[in-house]
Specification:
With 231 residues, the protein is mostly beta strands. The chain has a single domain, classed as 3 Solenoid (UDP N-Acetylglucosamine Acyltransferase, domain 1), CATH 2.160.10.10. The protein is built from two helices and 28 strands. β19 and β20 form a beta hairpin.
Length: 231
């Protein structure tokens, strides 16, 4: 299937739908984030800080958002209303975060777009990615954004391989999709709406809407032997 932005995302669930105007391939939005922020950022901070946190000068934060102690928001960044940026969260350059989002403890976000209600709550890495409305990452889930050989990321879609033109491209995670704990999405992964990735999985490629990717591991149970014990 040839995925377009509306196939993955409800564009009414972001205040930045203009990013997708005229976009053919959904990953092309990543090429626009830096310029979009430069053109639309009006630094202002209406949030509440619990304790001490670092917020750069080129950052907008909406009303009702709470930034917890130890968080670092480098910017440029646009962060919406009623979000929670938790202890030790690290929001790097060129990040757009919608309303009602969570970026949690020891989670890092870089050059990415989060739709309203997206959650990156525990020990996550989100690089060069888009998370849809109410998409959720389990603890330790990683969206890997760089191939080991450093070459451009290719996507196999609609029976052909497409050069995205991006050296760094993590994942597109559709609306209401769930990525299980300690899973890794390889560069260029596309996860459809309401799709599920089971915990401890390594995923590459496209997972269509409403599908489940399961990694089954065979476990062996044996008798515990105490070292030196005679049986």
């Amino acid at each position: 299937m040839l995925y377009t932005p509306p196939d993955l995302f409800d564009l009414s669930q972001t205040g930045h739908a203009a990013l997708f105007d005229g976009v053919e391939y959904p990953w092309d939005v990543l090429k626009r984030i830096k310029a979009y922020i430069a053109a639309n950022l009006h630094p202002a901070q209406f949030h509440k800080t619990d304790g001490n946190a670092y917020v750069g000068v080129d950052v907008f934060i909406g009303e009702g958002t709470i930034v917890e102690h130890g968080a670092m928001i480098v910017g440029p960044a646009i962060i919406g209303k009623n979000c929670r940026v938790r202890h030790n969260a690290y929001i790097r350059e060129h990040v757009i975060i919608g309303d009602d989002c969570v970026v949690g403890n020891s989670s890092e976000v870089k050059h990415s777009l989060l739709f309203n209600g997206a959650q990156v709550p525990h020990f996550n890495y989100v690089g060069d990615s888009v998370l849809g409305h109410k998409a959720h990452l389990g603890a330790g889930a990683v969206l890997s954004n760089l191939k080991l050989n450093g070459e451009n990321v290719w996507v196999e879609m609609d029976g052909r391989c497409i050069d995205t033109g991006l050296r760094k491209f993590g994942a597109l995670v559709g609306d209401h999709a769930e990525v299980g704990c300690n899973s890794v999405l390889n560069p260029g992964s596309i996860i459809g709406k309401r799709a599920l990735i089971y915990p401890n999985s390594t995923w590459r490629g496209i997972l269509p809407n409403n599908m489940i990717a399961k990694t089954r591991v065979t476990q062996e149970v044996t008798v515990r032997r105490i070292r030196g014990e005679i049986v």
